[in-house]
């Protein structure tokens, strides 16, 4: 049976204790392999229906891939994509898509009610480099938007996932094997907003029982969508330049080591964290990563495929940001507590990036314009 909090409990903002039961017979939640797993039924309908999931900011780098993954697991109609920009025809045809401005609380309430949402994945954000260019907007989207998400999730008893980042650390944090708990004094508004999100989410969890889950991602590398203005974007751009036969100019110094992850690993870690039974989560915010490399190292790996690639380095403001971030991330607690394992390292990521970009026709300059590119008029 799915637990329903009493109306009074909801008005008081109190959430209920989870009832424990087996995985619904439809097998929608594949976590029984984890030792000691106790699966909770709170977020399933009494008949074992799969969860209904809303993704905010879903037209960015991570959203469409996550929607595809979740739709494969839970069904097309159960995953609602949303954003404030106009979707491409492909996105529009792929499943439910709605307009949702993260700053409009009523609009969010309406969507949660109309679509009977159980889980919320909150992707809307201004990333590190873009955030520094428009601090007031970053404060609105990343902080006020997060307040709406927290209240909404409390009000409707949603399981909520909010991504954090290596950018939630700063110059005072240990930069080699940065652990889950360390000094966090970031120097970007992006980092400040993410520390705020981690703390507020954990506070709502302890105070109101909110099922808040958060992973700190490193730089994410993907072939299908354009990056959204982060400090690690160079590690995507290099593949496009190499395959198009263009000169690659890197805005970071060649020795700038940062943690990174291929998108398939990133999205799988998110899903695994989403479905990990509560009793295995020793904390609500975990580091996850796959590899760490410098621009010089990725250049060498890419030159194995494209030996003629020409490279120059012209550090800009993003160098100052990167210099305060972890070089190597310690994700041993995620590996221990809920079995996180990455698949892609630098060479295997290069292989898959080039095969995907070739399949998309990027080398012939026939790459499909994705939603983000359309929206930004790039
Ligand atoms: N991509 C990475 O390397 C990376 C690394 C660590 C964490 N993250 C986190 O993952 C999440 C998704 O990242 P991404 O790379 O897809 O970001 P992105 O910048 O590509 O996409 C963000 C989306 O948010 C939307 N948005 C902006 N303002 C909005 C508003 N008012 N209401 C609703 N939507 C709005 C944008 O239209 C955009 O589609 C972010 O929270 C980011 O901080 C990403």
UniProtKB/TrEMBL annotation:
Gene3D superfamilies: NAD(P)-binding Rossmann-like Domain (3.40.50.720). Its EC number is 1.1.1.103. Pathway: Amino-acid degradation; L-threonine degradation via oxydo-reductase pathway; glycine from L-threonine: step 1/2. One of its GO terms (biological process) is L-threonine catabolic process. It is an enzyme of class 1 (oxidoreductase). It catalyses: L-threonine + NAD(+) = (2S)-2-amino-3-oxobutanoate + NADH + H(+). GO terms for molecular function: L-threonine 3-dehydrogenase activity. Residues 53-288 form the NAD-dependent epimerase/dehydratase domain. InterPro entries: Epimerase_deHydtase (IPR001509), NAD(P)-bd_dom_sf (IPR036291), NAD(P)_epim/dehydratase (IPR051225). Catalyzes the NAD(+)-dependent oxidation of L-threonine to 2-amino-3-ketobutyrate, mediating L-threonine catabolism. Belongs to the NAD(P)-dependent epimerase/dehydratase family. This is L-threonine 3-dehydrogenase, mitochondrial.
């Amino acid at each position: 049976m799915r637990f329903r909090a009493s109306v009074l409990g909801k008005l008081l903002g109190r959430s209920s204790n989870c009832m424990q039961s087996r995985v619904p017979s439809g097998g929608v939640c594949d976590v029984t392999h984890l030792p000691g797993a106790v699966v909770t039924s709170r977020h399933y309908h009494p008949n074992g229906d799969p969860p209904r999931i809303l993704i905010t900011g879903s037209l960015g780098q991570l959203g469409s891939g996550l929607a595809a993954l979740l739709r494969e697991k839970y069904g097309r109609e159960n995953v609602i994509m949303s954003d404030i920009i106009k979707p491409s025809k492909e996105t529009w045809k792929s499943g439910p898509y709605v307009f949702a401005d993260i700053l409009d609380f009523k609009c969010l309430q309406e969507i949660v009610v109309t679509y009977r949402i159980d889980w919320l994945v909150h992707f809307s954000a201004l990333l590190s480099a873009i955030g520094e260019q428009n601090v007031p907007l970053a404060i609105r989207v990343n902080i006020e938007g997060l307040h709406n998400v927290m209240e909404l999730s409390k009000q409707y008893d949603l399981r909520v996932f909010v991504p954090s980042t290596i950018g939630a650390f700063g110059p005072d944090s240990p930069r080699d094997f940065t652990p889950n708990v360390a000094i966090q004094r970031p120097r970007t508004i992006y980092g400040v907003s993410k520390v705020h999100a981690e703390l507020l989410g954990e506070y709502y969890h302890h105070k109101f029982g909110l099922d808040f889950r958060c992973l700190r991602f490193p730089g994410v590398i993907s072939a299908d969508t354009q990056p959204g203005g982060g400090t690690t974007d160079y590690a995507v751009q290099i593949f496009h330049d190499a395959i198009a036969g263009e000169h690659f100019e890197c805005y970071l110094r060649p020795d700038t080591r940062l943690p990174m992850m291929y998108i398939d690993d990133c999205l799988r870690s998110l899903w695994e964290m989403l479905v990990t039974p509560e009793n295995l989560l020793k904390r609500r915010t975990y580091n996850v990563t796959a590899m760490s490399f410098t621009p010089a190292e990725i250049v060498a790996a890419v030159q194995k495929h494209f030996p003629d690639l020409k490279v120059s380095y012209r550090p800009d403001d993003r160098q100052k940001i990167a210099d305060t971030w972890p070089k190597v991330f310690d994700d041993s607690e995620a590996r221990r507590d809920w079995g996180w394992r990455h698949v892609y390292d630098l060479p295997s990521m290069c292989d898959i990036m080039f095969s995907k970009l070739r399949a998309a026709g990027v080398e012939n300059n026939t790459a499909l314009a994705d939603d983000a590119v359309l929206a930004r008029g790039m």
